[in-house]
Design brief:
homotetramer; alpha/beta; Rossmann fold; Dihydrodipicolinate Reductase, domain 2; 2 domains; 30% helix; amino-acid biosynthesis (chains A, B, C, D); N-acetyl-gamma-glutamyl-phosphate reductase activity (chains A, B, C, D); oxidoreductase (chains A, B, C, D); AGPR_dimerisation_dom (chains A, B, C, D); NADP+ binding (chains A, B, C, D)
């Protein structure tokens, strides 16, 4: 049994952490911090959590006595509190972007912020970095888009068979957070599709940095807001320079590729590789920590198409954070996150 | 540990039973029956259940060896198989309408079917009939609309203070089942509201029969299809004849009424009575077995308004069925159905 | 040809006025006023109006030279500018609530505002007040909920056969305006139903005031926000005291009632009375100035159900305002608002 | 004034033709044909058209006396009736895929049908083929996806600056037609994203055939079903081989490209070229015949992104068909299709 505190508990990812951790057999939630809702019952803000006894407190880092802290705090704020927590011997899983980059200059460029407290962190994608996570003190939980994009394609990069990947992602609105704004005003989203940051979105370089660990591949990324609450569906279009030069020859062998994906994920609880031609959809993973990967088809121009589906708040955020916690503390990997997706 | 079989497992309520029962510590699913999908892996139909090893079989009643059978079968079909199961000593929870009425002539009138196999059954609303359910051999799981409507109002009927109740219900589309038809064609439902069976819906007399167990009250019911997948929100408008006669005097005392609701449900895990003026919403109970009841306001004309929200597939069907099972077999009442709603 | 100015042109009703008036053969839009967007092209705010040359200006009442002004301004603001406009000889159609009530004390109670500039106005529901509108200087355009509710029921009040009416309304989100807030944050509305102001909504007394012009009837009103952009579907539950006293006898004669509705609206372009048992739906009137009225059924308890569907921004606001203008200036009544609803 | 008949009038594109043509000042609708609804009032099927006097008839080609026939009939059926109509001197605009391909063997491959009646037809995209359309006897109205894709990119192909284009399209459900099926069952679409035919969709070769008229470019296409009724948003990802070879140099000059688009469409009523960085969205064109084209950004890998938005039933089908008719008969090009999009 460990003591866990959540900072930034009034947002969507904070709410998800509480929803899942309250049912975790090895976890006691000892603090849920919110500046805005200090003293308020958690269920007044997260009304789905009616039944919980938790109450928000405005906790300072120095007040916290826990084995693990989740910082579900905004970019730029995490860096202010994480170092103090780490120094005091508390393990930290940070859900912000502050510690996701190896190269902090990339962070500073894409987040438009000076990084005042760089620290070594493990990138918390268990399917790649499990052994590092086990020993980590600070885990940088991946971004939601990068989770779906990297899972759909790092095997390709490992195989060294792609030169260019275009990730065309469709995301639910919960990725934008709990605060209302014009972009998420119901009449602006419903019955609509809104591309945004069509070039230069900050999750592009995060994907790029991870994929180039395996081989040299050019990464492009464009997100679209669709009228969905949860979920990111990523369409990964893959190209090889060999193919680009010749109209007629396709040298992607989908059977080999598919075989390699099956091998890579065969012991993974949360990644399901579908059959060739089977297509993932958001409803299959809604509310769950599963990632579904499918497609595996090549068209006449030599373009390879792979599709991944995740729940942005679970596998793309809080569920993956709990998965990381389970690994760090030697718990059963799927403890409290084993449930199936909610469909229909 | 008990052995459980689900008949009609390829529909939505069947899928929900599997989703929840696979995580139940005291249950082994020994059969999932479907005529249409005989031999098919369950996850090919219920794609959210990828990871399950279950395979549909076309099971005949005589093939079934189980402690409990859930019949998630269509109205009119349950009556053909339930008696044989019951006779062979298997407990049955029937999710169809076939055994919900005390008065089978009401069933025959509203379902337009001759009832060929009447049997005594317990109406499976645990908050009213827990002690009968404990001893039951056959439980008739309540309809989705009646669950929300009765929970919102049976206390009023017990108190004997209402003469007329109008239930104006808004339901998600999953209540209509997994088979496509014109009424559930996406462009007909999205961005739309469709009232249907505005008088004479078969769930009206089911509500009426239950409420009149407590006192004499006239029940009216009108359902509306809204662009939502799961959930029933019921607006219960209550009237007293005393009030109708006089414009100025309101004799509903909301504090007393609210107090009575709090008392009635104080030991119930799944029913949450909100404060006076707090309003339930579907998102708070989505995917969960909770029922939220709120509102408790009276307008200047003496109309009392109470609102209830449930997930039609969980509290309104499969979750409640599992709750009944837990009671029948002495398990923890919320085993496998204790999780919170999925919000946002 | 008349000169028309719109004050408050950057909101939804302002945008609708422009959308429709730009195609009006007898209207020249001489001003579109917005404080916030002074100097901005209209199509930058209302992106569907790309192609329009109009530019927002911050117009003061004294700057306006027009035959008619639409004030699509917030409650409380209209009363500050309408009197000056009227005095200067300009006709005004006010889309706010400021001039809708005969009894200004009701306004002050329900809007929580002191009314500083009471004026006589004609209630702009053409189907009732056409002859007054023809001669009006100031028209108070009805509220969106009252438009649907009154059209569904004033015939009943005229017939003198109902003692109580309960309007249970389901509205799209555009009724809440163009400004984002928590209630209209996409994840709070989508896949959800939100009742609000379940008693005491300010549109209740507006309905009450109009219906009691015909006979004494008690009016109750409860609105619900549904995941829809446009449209109000109103379920009108009607009761007679005679019926309340006796369980068995229904004295509503739906054929007579239906006949009376047909008669009342036979020359109305915009009100369509459906056959008995036919049910209106929002998609049939989407984007149009039509009101569909249907249902006309009585249940076993003697409750009468009538359903109306309108587009809240057109028949419930800007389209009806243009209808009023057409009447005031002797134009063809359906000029620029004759198009059908957009379905699917 | 011309006489027009619509065959296949009970589907979505048929309904749209009626909705728009009934307000056309130069058109008399002399026949609306439907086998299924012979004798039924049009407004019983298309309930938004309540007010129309039209009645479906089951018309044979030989019964038709008209200046123009729209065949809104299924693929494979048009080819059976179009030749007879054309021979009898009637002009035809065919909304099916039967006459869209220059190379009928491509049609046969992708539609899986033997083409029994090949005829010369003009591809009805007015922005490219206006002068041919003016003189045409048979116009093949473009597919919905090709309309959005070609408009977003034919200028690039004309400029000869792209080697590869990937069209990642997001479509509303109305593109799938009025008949319910599993793919369009509400719970399968809502809150979900469904990619389909991720390679090999029949609209890919249609786009390819048109774009290669200008220069040699490889076309890839993947459609996704999103929870939207109307609209196709196409994300066009463009690549040049020059760029692929070098990570650092971008030789797309977006200012030049944007200038070329502005020039190309400067006299087009229905195509709006947005500023560089402005992003089209479906809500801006909903229900209208407009196409919005925007984006025009290049990322660090040299990928060019252009976005187009259309209403699939209007610019992608019936509106464009009427545009073609207006050109063929010398009417004002925007007669009956000049209205703005419906937003919010």
């Amino acid at each position: 049994m460990i003591d866990v505190t959540i900072i930034g508990a009034s947002g969507y990812t904070g709410g998800e952490l509480i929803r899942l951790l309250e049912k975790h057999e090895k976890v006691r939630i000892t603090g849920v911090s919110s500046r805005k809702y200090d003293g308020e019952a958690v269920y007044k803000v997260h009304q789905n959590l009616r039944g919980s006894d938790l109450v928000f407190k405005n906790l300072k880092p120095e007040d916290i006595d826990a084995d693990l802290v989740f910082t579900a705090t905004p970019h730029g704020y995490s860096m202010k509190i994480v170092p103090e927590l780490v120094e005091s011997g508390i393990k930290v899983i940070d859900l912000s972007g502050d510690y996701r980059f190896r190269d902090f200059s990339v962070y500073e460029k894409y987040y438009g912020l000076k990084h005042t407290n760089p620290l070594d962190a493990v990138y918390g994608l268990p399917e790649i970095y499990r052994s590092d996570i086990k020993k980590a003190t600070l885990v940088a939980n991946p971004g939601c888009f990068p989770t779906g994009a990297i899972l759909s394609s790092f095997v390709l990069s490992k195989m060294g068979i792609v030169d260019r990947l275009v990730f065309d992602s469709k995301t639910g609105v919960s990725g934008g957070g709990i605060s209302p704004n014009e972009a998420f005003h119901f009449p602006n989203v419903y019955d609509n599709v809104n591309p945004y940051n069509i070039v230069g979105h900050r999750h592009g370089p995060e994907i790029q940095e991870e994929l180039k660990e395996f081989s040299n591949v050019l990464v492009s990324f464009t997100p679209h807001l669709v009228p969905v609450i949860r979920g990111i569906l990523t369409t990964c279009h893959g190209f090889s320079n060999n193919i680009n030069k010749s109209n007629d020859v396709t040298d992607f062998n989908v059977e080999d590729i598919h075989e390699e994906y099956k091998k890579q994920f065969k012991d993974e609880i949360f990644v399901k590789v579908l059959d060739i031609g089977e297509i993932p959809k958001l409803s299959s993973v809604r509310g769950s920590n599963f990632a579904h990967i499918g497609g595996f088809e090549v068209d006449e121009t030599g373009r390879l198409v792979i599709i991944s589906a995740i729940d942005n708040l679970v596998k793309g955020a809080s569920g993956q954070a709990i998965h990381n916690m389970n690994i760090m503390f030697g718990f059963k990997e799927d403890e409290s996150i084993s449930h199936y997706g909610l469909a229909p």
